[in-house]
Design a protein that fits this description.
mainly beta; Porin; two-stranded antiparallel ribbon; disordered N terminus
């Protein structure tokens, strides 16, 4: 006989052995039934989520992968193929109508804008020009060649605040065989400030403002080759201090430079350049077109040899039509053809018309006398051209036909086809 204590009444109940055994079996069976109805697992397995439709697709692949071990493939945050595809679509849809300024195709993708530090932006881009030409002399053999005219790597930076900027331009395709590779390798290398309204002050290596076309960017030229006065008397970079001003009715470009070119010597002499343009229609907002007339001079000395150059310019633009005329005369020069004491002169006249926004046709008469003290040595070039601007100056096709007439050499015909890409 067993005694039990009831907590509610504090009364002792005595059960017979047979009743106690039956009561214990009933409690045990009741516990087993409850366990079978709601089983309790010893280890809870993680919940498996259904994959999304995007996860069921085969992941994109690229030569550069950011491996994600949970996916067993490249991370969805980085796919080179997607980036290239989007950039190609953006370039295809890009509309560039202006042809007077260069604009790179991938500027939005190749511009870095740090949140902290001295730099506000940094843009790295590349310019590539190439052409195929065939020269047919009136007597002699035909000559054909393919030429990579230039490959430039440019680094444009702007300091925080937007008032100062710098440029570094590298040229690995220069043709200066008489000097070490690194001397002409650095072309543009300067710092510029625009804190004074309408005025910029530049310190470093740049192309001096000798004439209009002589100081023009190679990426906005109308023809494959510059005019003869530009490529012989100008189109060279020098180190110095330069001040430029731009107002509605006039602009100017004044500089003091070392007469050294391409860092070939420390300071072999000095050079002073000055150019001024007058814009009579500058207050008319283009209603009557854009008229510019200008003149300038260059005076310098290098290794004891003095040189002096003067020039004049006139240009007019109205809607789809534009024309320009330039004249230069030198008593010695220190330009693209090197330092010389020869007295030369020349001129060119260009007319052009935009048939459509993309197609431009143009013609140029170009005359150059390399030495006025020698008679019958004039060189004349008659050029017909067409430019097709796929994406402004950033992507264009060029065709030139040039008839070269020489007083003391065989005349020739030249066919030239070129391309330009600014990336």
């Amino acid at each position: 006989m067993t005694t039990s204590l009831c907590a509610c009444s504090q009364e002792v109940i005595t059960l017979e052995p047979e009743v106690e055994h039956s009561f214990a079996q009933n409690i045990l069976l009741s516990n087993v039934e409850n366990t079978q109805e709601i089983p309790q697992p010893l280890i809870n397995a993680p919940k498996v989520e259904e994959p999304s439709p995007m996860e069921l697709q085969e992941p994109l692949r690229s030569s550069i992968t950011d491996y994600d071990p949970t996916q067993g493939a490249a991370s969805s945050q980085f796919f080179l193929f997607n980036a290239i595809k989007k950039a190609a679509q953006d370039v295809y849809n890009l509309e560039i109508e202006r042809t007077d300024v260069p604009q790179a195709l991938l500027k939005d993708y190749l511009t870095w804008k740090p949140e902290t530090g001295p730099l506000e932006s940094l843009h790295i881009w590349t310019a590539v020009q190439q052409n195929f030409s065939t020269t047919i002399p009136e007597r002699g053999d035909t000559d054909s060649k393919f030429d990579v005219n230039l490959i430039n790597v440019l680094i444009d930076g702007k300091f925080r605040g937007g008032k100062e900027n710098f440029r570094i331009m590298l040229d690995p395709t220069h043709r200066s065989s008489h000097m070490p590779f690194m001397e002409p390798f650095f072309q543009d290398l300067y710092v510029e400030t625009t804190r004074i309204p309408h005025t910029s002050i530049l310190v470093g290596n740049s192309r001096p403002g000798v004439g209009i076309e002589g100081a023009q960017s190679p990426y906005t030229l109308a023809f494959i080759n510059r005019s003869q006065i530009s490529r012989n008397l100008a189109n060279i970079r020098k180190f110095g201090v330069r001040v430029r001003g731009d107002y509605s009715l006039m602009d100017y470009d004044v500089g003091i430079y070392s007469s050294s070119t391409n860092f070939t010597a420390f300071f072999p002499g000095h050079e002073f350049d000055a150019w001024m343009n007058i814009k009579p229609l500058g207050k008319t907002d283009g209603k009557y077109g854009k008229l510019v007339t200008g003149a300038g001079l260059q005076s310098g000395e290098k290794h004891g040899m003095s040189y002096y150059l003067t020039g004049a310019y006139a240009g007019y633009e109205y809607k789809k039509f534009w024309t320009k005329f330039e004249y230069a005369r030198s008593n010695g020069s220190n330009g693209g053809s090197g330092l010389t004491d020869r007295r030369s002169q020349g001129l060119f006249w260009t007319v052009a018309y935009h048939v459509t926004k993309k197609l431009e046709i143009l013609a140029r008469y170009d005359q150059f006398d390399p030495d006025r003290e020698i008679k019958n040595n004039n060189q004349r070039e008659y050029t017909l051209g067409a430019n097709y601007y796929l994406k402004g100056q950033a992507m264009k096709l060029i065709f030139n036909y040039v008839y070269c007439q020489n007083d003391n050499k065989v005349d020739s015909h030249r066919l030239m086809m070129g391309t330009q890409f600014l990336l």
